[in-house]
Amino acid sequence: YTVAKFIADLLEVPITPDSPAKILINRTKNTIVASGDVRVNRGMISIQDKTVTLRPGTPDQPPAYTLNNETPRTSVELDGPGSYADLQGLIDTMNAMGLSTAQVITMFEDLISAGAINAELLVQ
Q1: What angle do CA 14, 23, 53 make, to 5 degrees?
Q2: pTM, entire model
Q3: pLDDT digits (tens, 9 = 90+) for 41-53
Q4: Strand partners, 46
Q5: Which residues contact 52 (CB under 8 A, 6 or more apart)?
Q6: Three-state SS for 83?
């Protein structure tokens, strides 16, 4: 019996525990599945001739993705809301850069190892 459960029983408030953020990588099927509240922090990664820079946005500025016709496909800055970049924006950016699934998997593994993505990594 935990303190939180005791208080919830007193207040009759249901407790819904947060599930930890997880990223499942299946190299055989070439798939990446993300669940939970995956956070992308400030960071940078380069693979072969492609670079992605992750930097947080500001409350005054909405998320902006600098991938456009004038941006070289080998270097992209990804801005995100608040103090975290957006995971979907990161994936969209990697896809727009033409990265293969194997390259995206490698980048996710390295970003998680470096602490730029807050998630538990599960590899199959």
Answers
A1: 115
A2: 0.67
A3: 778 888 777 777 7
A4: 51
A5: 44, 45, 46, 76, 77, 78, 90, 93, 94, 97, 107
A6: coil
**Are the beta carbons of 43 and 67 closer than 8 angstroms?**
no
Token pair for 107: 């980048």
Confidence check: pLDDT of 98 > 70 = yes
What are the tokens at 46?
């380069």
Unique residue bearing structure tokens 């005054």 = 60
Q: State the Cα–Cα distance between residues 108 and 124, nearest whole angstrom.
A: 14
Decide if pLDDT at 62 tops 90. Answer: no
Q: Which residues contact 84 (CB under 8 A, 6 or more apart)?
A: 39, 40, 41, 56
- What's the Cα-to-Cα distance from 108 to each of 3, 72, 80, 94, 114, rounded to whole Å? 37, 22, 17, 11, 10
- Quote the pLDDT of residue 96: 78
